[in-house]
Amino acid sequence: MVRPVDRCRVCGRDDWLDVLSFGETLLAGDFQDPADPPGDRYPLDVAVCRECRLMSLRHVVSPEKLFEHYLYVSSDSGLITGHSRRLVEHSVAGLGLAEGDLVVELGSNVGAQLAMFQEAGLRTVGVDPARNLAAAANERGVETLPEYFTTAAAVRVAERHGPARMVLGRQCFAHIDDVHEVLDGATRLLTADGVLAIEVPYLVELLANNQFDTIFHEHLSYFSLGTLHRLFGGHGLRVFDVWTAPVHGGSIVVFATPEASPRPTRPVVGEMLADERARGLTGEDVYRRFAARVERVRAEIGDLVRGLVAGGATVAGYGAPAKGSALLQACGLGRAEVAFCTDTTSLKQGRLLPGSRIPVCSPEEGTARRPDYFLLLAWNYAEEIIRKERRFLEDGGRFIVPIPEPRIVSAQTVTA
Ligand code: TYD
Ligand code: ZN
């Protein structure tokens, strides 16, 4: 079920700088049915490889446990769909993908992104090990193999559909232990000028904005461009472009192509690599300072919420993202402090947060119950949510935004 990481999954060395330990915690995305027994705990420690600077968990929980019945459904929020649309537009107008070209997506979830590629005239195949989600994608007409993206799966896709002009992995690459197998599969699938586009939460944002709650068992790796550049290079893939995107707290989309491909490398790649060195990502201090800030912020969030509750206020969680359950566990907050959490995902409603067993309800029910404070667990959508919940604020309700530093948002602070 759980195995310690010795050798780095990128470079193979076994020389780690320990950064943070959260002790043994419950799987953040394991929303329980009220009849379920409490889940199991697994160690949650994070370290940085002294050779290639991969930030990684020190333990890997088996993927069957994490992903085969997955409750995370890609969001239809404006932020996410805007980004998905931009990727499709860029693939056609910027990268020259033409009608009939094949796009293969790993971790394709319910197929929302691939459906957009289909609308643009491209052929698509999804690969996702979550059987419940793959079934939903197939039902909407997005062909999806309920599998891990292994070399064998990639070869089978190529045999059946021909080579891919694009292999896309959005917000799943950091969940994968054997990254070499995925890259091997991708290189076998790609055309000579094909594009591998990998989107990951950006390590620089994690460090700069104290996003400690994004550290949980699903997220095995926390990538800089430097580490990905080295990893892809080892598979004959040249990074030729990189985007920053405001999704999931700040992400990068790294575009790579076979070494001999005619696609020119854009200057932004070298600039971002230099910026990472200038920020000290290749040193050790930056990680030690991050760890110290996280210890402080964890304590401050817990103290703030406990103080409000002790003063008679009611607090509920806004959103029940996996990182929200990681945050509550890391801050020692439970049902005594947080009465319930709201979430738009119907699969989560009626279930309980792991460990704390805080119940999840719909946003409509949650706002009707009118807590004094909403702890904004889905802080990566802060702008959109605060705009949507204007009424709650105008009625005197407040948000607690936990990240990067806990702060309280009221109607006055929004207009100010
Ligand atoms: P997300 O941050 O995308 O992922 P993770 O689980 O990896 O941390 O999850 C956001 C959650 O917040 C998701 O369960 C949907 C929910 N949500 C709302 O309840 N209301 C909203 O307005 C939005 C944008 C999201
Ligand atoms: Zn390494």
Automatic annotation (TrEMBL):
The keyword Methyltransferase applies. SUPFAM superfamilies: S-adenosyl-L-methionine-dependent methyltransferases. Keywords: Methyltransferase, Transferase. The keyword Methyltransferase applies. It comes from Actinomadura sediminis. Residues 8-67 form the Methyltransferase putative zinc binding domain. One of its GO terms (biological process) is methylation. Pfam families: Methyltransf_13, Methyltransf_14, Methyltransf_23. Gene3D superfamilies: 6.10.250.3100, Methyltransferase, zinc-binding domain (6.20.50.110), NAD(P)-binding Rossmann-like Domain (3.40.50.720), Vaccinia Virus protein VP39 (3.40.50.150). Residues 246-404 form the C-methyltransferase domain. Its EC number is 2.1.1.-. GO terms for molecular function: methyltransferase activity. This is Class I SAM-dependent methyltransferase.
